[in-house]
Amino acid sequence: MSNTSPAALFERHQELLNRAVEAIHTREYWSPYSENLKKYNEEAVKSAPADFKALCDSHFAIEGVTGVKKITGERSPYGFDLGISYDQPDMNALVDEMHAALPQWRDVGAKGRVGVCMEILHRLNELSPLMAYTVMHTSGQGFMMAFQAGAPHAQDRALEAVAYGWDAMKGIPETARWNKPQGKMDPLVMDKQFHIVPRGVALVVGCSTFPTWNTYPGLFASLVTGNPVIVKPHPTAILPAALTVKVAREVLKEVGLNPTLVSLVPDTVAEPVTKALALNPKVKVIDFTGSSAFGNWLEDNARHARVFTEKAGVNSIIVDSVSDLKAVTRNLAFTLSLYSGQMCTTTQAIYVPKDGINTPEGKVSFDEFAQALATATSKFLSDNDRACMVLGAIQSDATFQRIDECRKLGALVLDSETRQHPEFPEARICTPLILKVDGKDKAVYSEERFGPISFVIATESTEDSMRLAREVINEEGAITLGVYSTSDAVLQQAEELAMDVKVALSCNLDGGVFVNQSAAFSDFHATGGNPAANASLTDTAFLVNRFVVVQSRRHV
Amino acid sequence: MSNTSPAALFERHQELLNRAVEAIHTREYWSPYSENLKKYNEEAVKSAPADFKALCDSHFAIEGVTGVKKITGERSPYGFDLGISYDQPDMNALVDEMHAALPQWRDVGAKGRVGVCMEILHRLNELSPLMAYTVMHTSGQGFMMAFQAGAPHAQDRALEAVAYGWDAMKGIPETARWNKPQGKMDPLVMDKQFHIVPRGVALVVGCSTFPTWNTYPGLFASLVTGNPVIVKPHPTAILPAALTVKVAREVLKEVGLNPTLVSLVPDTVAEPVTKALALNPKVKVIDFTGSSAFGNWLEDNARHARVFTEKAGVNSIIVDSVSDLKAVTRNLAFTLSLYSGQMCTTTQAIYVPKDGINTPEGKVSFDEFAQALATATSKFLSDNDRACMVLGAIQSDATFQRIDECRKLGALVLDSETRQHPEFPEARICTPLILKVDGKDKAVYSEERFGPISFVIATESTEDSMRLAREVINEEGAITLGVYSTSDAVLQQAEELAMDVKVALSCNLDGGVFVNQSAAFSDFHATGGNPAANASLTDTAFLVNRFVVVQSRRHV
Questions:
Q1: Any CB–CB contact under 8 A between B554 and chain A?
Q2: Interface touch B25/A167, C-beta < 8 Å
Q3: Nearest chain B residue to A31, by CA
Q4: Where does the Aldehyde dehydrogenase domain lie (chains A, B) (predicted)?
Q5: Distance, CA of B144 to CA of B167 (rounded, Å)
């Protein structure tokens, strides 16, 4: 028996929904879920570490799920095994069951689905303090980032998807009376119905570095438009997804719906299941965040599905001239340090003319600029406790090894060093590696080097910087582009460049906003127009490709 | 020098635009362009036949276009060569030129582009009487259909695309101020710009049977969202497209824009150019109407582009029971006869239980139903002049030959006969071929047999009819599905079936509305959810995939 209904949930959350729809159209600052930990339930905040520990070293049971296999293997980048086991269900049977449950969810209608999605988000928000620990100890993010990016910011992005979904669906009437005049004869009159019909079972493939932030948009976009959703988390970051799925199923059950509509399929690095799931013909929508190789494989092979991918890219900054060198290098030092460059928005390529750049204090040479960046970074990370908080831990062995492998790719501007975390001595913590290379060494800097690795690139001129950035972004993609210039003409050229290669541009960031930060309801994350991503989080296109409209008509 | 501006055109047409945006959201009856020939300028109507003749047997020059090749070869299905030659430009040079002109069109902005598109439509509407003759003598449609479907209805669909484009683009603000509170510190304040950026050069590949109706949605959808458009008409139906392109270029020139933004690339059946155009990496959007083989080729090979296809399908009708057999068979007779079944919406498969159907007069056997349909069709076509008007002419040799080839596929219900057109003795005119087959002969009726060919299929029961229709539509696609039943339960089952296979449903059509008719601003043409089409004409998804949003931000 259910004690509430999807329709009641819609009414409960309607005010927030209306505000969210307003926000997606004004794109001014708005955030429904507080990023201030103090605004959360004090008890929940206090008990979160213990709640997290209680999840460790035990089986994560999800009601109604029986596994054909036990999945384990998560290890915190802070140096300990989580020791959690999960059930992997029989996948074909699961897809069939979800496909069979689809009409129920479809027939709940747009309003009801919005209500259910918003209730799930409400509960996830209450769970934020615990979610922070699960994200921290899977992704390696520092605690405060794991809290903000992993909980409220991820929830913001999810609500953004729900708002775009509602905005698109409410634009299609449920019914219409069609009354066509026929001159002196009686008019032709028909009643028409318009059904929002989801494409099919949806699959969301999570990544290890942002297990909620990059999973929620696809999850909620598919769900709100009527598609049952399988969450297939990265094998090293299952817990945040499992917790999310559990909450979703609780809400579904409470309103009398089939909890299988949101299901978890965990797997291991040794025995991955994503390809098998993606090739199931009943899977019609796929969201993926991860490597270009796998994203391209999905696009090329899951042709029966709509595939939304966020892949690798080479985020770039063009330095032409600055009005405050210290402020600029401080800003960049933070960008390069935050979560050890393990963000899909972190800068990798910094283009600087070899003849140097203009500053109010006169010309600063290429080497002086590189040195200033190194100094700013070292200084920013001089306090070890703060450094560890900002850097977080390195998520994967591959990223850790990559730092070493990349050392030989250029001349050292700043070497990467390991750090000791005050609380977790086994944590894998590394400061940024900054190299300098020549613009001609394109092969070196035009390949994504995921992690705390960046290149200061000596170019012939700002024009040459623009040319190189254009080539690299056209070929490899990018989610962010920054420009520093005191010249309006150069800023205008950068704006043209950004439009041509379809990348978001940040101009002269030298304060408390960073090129790698993207705010829900205001910043579009990726454009979907270059190789880094084939979709944007979140815009109308991200939603409307997930359903079709089926009409029926009959004479009155 | 231009004597008006895109902005002025926006204002001129704004009232109509607002009405169109209202219409796409209510989907009640609305048609901006009259389908009554009498509402058009009397002189234009009177001079249209002569204007058409003046175009024949001469070179169709488009200002600013020089050809590297002369293209000829159109022949009216009414039995005479048009004798018109066109310039085929150097295609690679053209794409480069259009790509270079893109920023100009992009920077006109959404309002200006809407204004220009609506002015083009206004001029096309004035040209409707002439357009009717060009459509008639390329597609073979009867004159009245060529006028209505080829001019006002095609213009309606074009305006529908413009309205969806405007609706989507105006939902994205041009600028925003982002003001994020920072507790006791000064807020973070940024100014943001959001640019609508088109994907690239667009290609619209026309078909021979609806050279305007199926070309305009893609043309105007791409154009209004900022993409320069190449129109590549079917080699046997160039003239309506050429006329359209000419009008568009005149408007572009008048407002001081580069006319190359809308360009024609004609080709011949012997030397087709579509593949070469589609594979040009600067071509980023492709619209196609035609065979499944070629549509699938485009989807599989033009992976650098967004591809919108309308392909083959098997439109179906399920007959369970009727309240007025005569009215039903009369309605179906019209559907099968109109333009000799050369519509992508014409019924091919009519499922009828072998035990017959219930009527108020008692059970009507399968054979009696088939006979009633044959009688209704013969009767409807008994007046030769009227028959010729409704049937139009057979567009292609292949369709003409197919009628003969299909005769052997089942037992004759009604044989196809050729007719003599009162005005054009050489016209290729054929009445419908109706065959009866068993439900088990799926291979016969589940392949699209384009043209005046349909099958009455004997099934075990209405349930069996539903099962077969489900299989065939899932596998082969369909744009239309009809159902006849006096049972609410059966109608509900049909509604479920329609949602499952994602096809538009028409229930109990027995009056002046026909399953193959689709009204702009009310009926969605195709859903994009089954093999017959990967997009709908026209919904939001048809528009928003043609552009991305590129933002820039800077501190205030």
A1: yes
A2: no
A3: B180
A4: 87-470
A5: 33
> Residue B499 is nearest to which of A173, A195, A544, comparing CB atoms?
A195
Among the listed residues A171, A132, A128, A170, the one whose alpha carbon sits nearest the alpha carbon of residue A32: A128
DSSP of B359-389? ETTEEE-HHHHHHHHHHHHHHHT-SHHHHHH
Contact of B227 with chain A, judged by CB distance below 8 Å, is answered with: no
User: Each residue of B103-149: pLDDT tens digit?
Assistant: 999 999 999 999 999 999 999 999 999 999 999 999 999 999 999 99
For residue B197, the distance in angstroms to the closest alpha carbon of chain A comes to 6
B100 close to A (CB below 8 A): no
- Of residues B77, B82, B144, B143, the one with CA closest to residue B429: B77
pLDDT of A3 reads: 67
Neighbours of B141 (CB within 10 A): 31
d(CA B356, CA B460): 10
DSSP B140-166: ---HHHHHHHHTHHHHHHHHHHHHHHH
Does B398 contact A at CB distance below 8 Å? no
d(CA A76, CA A240): 13
Average pLDDT in chain B = 97
Task: Say yes or no: A109 contacts chain B, CB-CB below 8 A.
Answer: no
- The minimal CB distance from B544 to the residues A500, A504, A541 is found for A541
Cα–Cα distance measured from residue B496 to residue B489, given in angstroms and rounded to the nearest whole number: 11
- Chain A interface, best mutation among B522, B536, B556, by max A CB count within 10 A: B522
- At A1 the pLDDT is 44
Written as six digits, the tokens of B294 are: 């070629």
pLDDT in tens, A338-393: 999 999 999 999 999 999 999 999 999 999 999 999 999 999 999 999 999 999 99
Q: How far apart are CA B166 and CA B109, in angstroms?
A: 11
The chain A residue lying nearest B521, using CA atoms, is A178
Q: What is the pLDDT of residue B3?
A: 67
Residue range A129-162, pLDDT digits in tens: 999 999 999 999 999 999 999 999 999 999 999 9
Structural domains of chain B sorted by starting position, each given as residue range(s) with its CATH number in brackets: 40-311+536-555 (3.40.605.10), 315-507 (3.40.309.10)
What are B349-407's pLDDT values in tens digits? 999 999 999 999 999 999 999 999 999 999 999 999 999 999 999 999 999 999 999 99
High-pLDDT (> 70) share of chain A, %: 99
Q: Which residues of B120-130 are buried (b: 16+ CB within 10 A; e: fewer)?
A: bbbebbebbbb
**Separation in Å, CA A459 to CA A301, A346, A489, B425:** 39, 21, 19, 74
Residue B1 predicted with pLDDT over 80 = no
Closest CA to A498 of A478, A484, A522, A475: A478
In the block, tokens 């040319």 appear at A467
Counting beta carbons within 10 angstroms of the beta carbon of residue A489, is it exposed (0 to 12), middle (13 to 18) or buried (19 or more)?
A: exposed
CB atoms within 10 A of CB B474: 15
